[in-house]
Queue: 3 jobs
Job 1
Amino acid sequence: MWSDSLLVGTVTDPQLYTRLQTVKGWIFVAVTAVMLHLLIRRHTRILQQSDEALRESEKRFALFMQNLPGVAFIKDAQGRHIWANSAFERILGTGWFGKTNEETFLAGTDARLTENDRMVLTTGQPAEMVEATELKDGVRYWLTHKFPIQVREGVPPLLGGVSIDITERVRVEENLRRSEDRYRRLVESSPQPMAVVMNGKWAYVNSAAVQLLGARNPEEVIGKRALDFAHPDYHEMIRREDRLSRSGKKETVYIEFKAKRLDGQVIEVEVASIPITYQGRSASQVVFRDITERKNAEAMIRHQAYHDYLTGLPNRSLFSDRLALALVQSARNKQMLAVLFMDLDQFKVINDTLGHSVGDDLLKCVAERLIRCLRKGDSVGRMGGDEFTILLSGLKCPEDAVVVAQKILGVIRRPWQVAGHELRISASIGIAVFPGDGQDAETLMKNADIAMYRAKEQGKDRCQLYSPSIGSST
């Protein structure tokens, strides 16, 4: 090194030269130690920051999972429960940890429960299924989404699952099926609403048909046009089926339509029309069945499947469908649309201090205000808890979404009269705009959620447009 050459050229005393070499060595060691110390401190600080960010992310995820309205769980590769959310514990108590399905549930549990677990872990693919478990309070039915969780390479995956209790829906469907089965058996052996139609008019009705049609006696029905008892929307269909029945083809015609009773009530009926000979003339024997209850139940089930049970707003599934359709239309028309992700700021305080019933009433009021302050073509949904999403289509620029968001914030700030309490809350709104902030529904929802959390970090009661810098920092 140049320092050695310099010492050799300037120092002639060997002892002095040796001492200087020693000093130079210690200086090098000291400088190296200081640099290593600084590098270690910097690396430690980076690790601490990363640990804090990871802990915060895990905390948010844990809160999210614990507050899911459905049941969430994780099992190891041997099928033992190793984690579950509070909804799971409310149903099964606290003795589930480390237990398999056979050890957790009673004997009446569906044997396919464990088979489905193995199938998901074997194929490595998520799956959705309906499963039954027997608990102390009876059998419950679940719509379950199971998926593998690969923790790290070379380690058997865990099994994650989220379940929604559909027991009531299954029971309604089962009751409907049983009712229909009983009816079919009774048709063969018991009197049913029956009538004979000749030349488009009632020629005969039994007592059950008299009651079904809202009459007091057969004379109020016989001789009148059968078409007069059908809702006008179904007249053409009934005429077509009547022509088919009188064409000479010996086949039974089944139709469903709305019937108008003599007392004005409208009911849903299923009719089987059978060609017969009545009093030596061609006629049709008609067998009625009132299916109003079934139709109402089907409508209720369809509504529950796609709407939030509390507010009646579209749930995540329906909102995602609407967003996907709006994306196709916006891309075709080369227009912008925006997804707004809104979270109420002080809702937890109200829930904790005034109770969940007041909180639920407040959520209903929020839903009503949101609907009133949006355009007819916009859509609002509830994701769960105090989180709402809004779909705005036909925008000219991102600022149009900001204007709507500010309007919503103003509406939320207004006092709320709920269960005798005057409440004041605010909201934080994140905005993601198509096409700049995402090309698909999942990305737009995620980015709007990220922007919403940034709005909360900045002091709440505000809106925030998504930007790539927010996403990268998150």
Job 2
Amino acid sequence: MHRGVICDDGRRENMRDGIEGTKPLVNRNLAQSASLIRGLAKAKQDFELGAAWMEAWRRGPKWRKHLAIGSLRLQDSDFGLLEDAVCYAEKMTGTDRRSHGMGDGKEGLVNFRRRMGGVRPQT
């Protein structure tokens, strides 16, 4: 999930290195996140993927914010694989459905971001 968190805002990683311009880094991290999600889904490692998201989600509001931002940047098909994995892990662990931000599609995470004060109004 670290790649997903990082791909929400490459400035954090770039500032550490003193590099300006974030787009290439964000795109690289997003591509790596998507590749990992597809690979784990193909290898039938849905539970592991979902459990990793759940663990990161429990780390607190800042992590949830970054997870939401990063996952909203995924293509719909990759987001769907991630969402399915989280819902499966919730089911397998007996956790309440939708208690880790997934289960309502991208719109559910957009609404979460609105509640957290992070969605800019469209102009």
Job 3
Amino acid sequence: MSQMSSSGWLLAFVISLLMSLLMGLALIWLSIERTDKAYTIRQLKSEVEQRSVLKSKLEVERDRLLAPQVLRRKAAQLGMSEARAGQIRRMPDPGPEAVAFSEDFFLWHIWARAGARLVTRLRRPSTAAGRKEGCAHGWPPLTGTASASARWR
């Protein structure tokens, strides 16, 4: 019995030693990953700071270029002058009705294109001989018609 219990202790010791080694390796790996993430975060913070400095410099440059005296000088260099009284035309604001109309028109346009594609697919020749002699179903080919711009898909 003493030999069996000593081999049991030895097995438990070896297993615990392997588990300790595995836990140590996991801790080292996590430490390396944490250091890597910290380095990446530092780099990103530095990049954000550089970009914010660049943004502020660009805003200052934009404001300088859009200053009235600079624009006036640039317009004089290009031969531009102020518009006379009859040269400016003001268009009335179309209002929300025009926006609703344009959205409806856009949806109608999409619907019409889908219908045209369906018709085009229905008219597609089914055989190579049909392509040469016209459509296999007896309809004339689409070339020379208003829908000739429709591509075969």
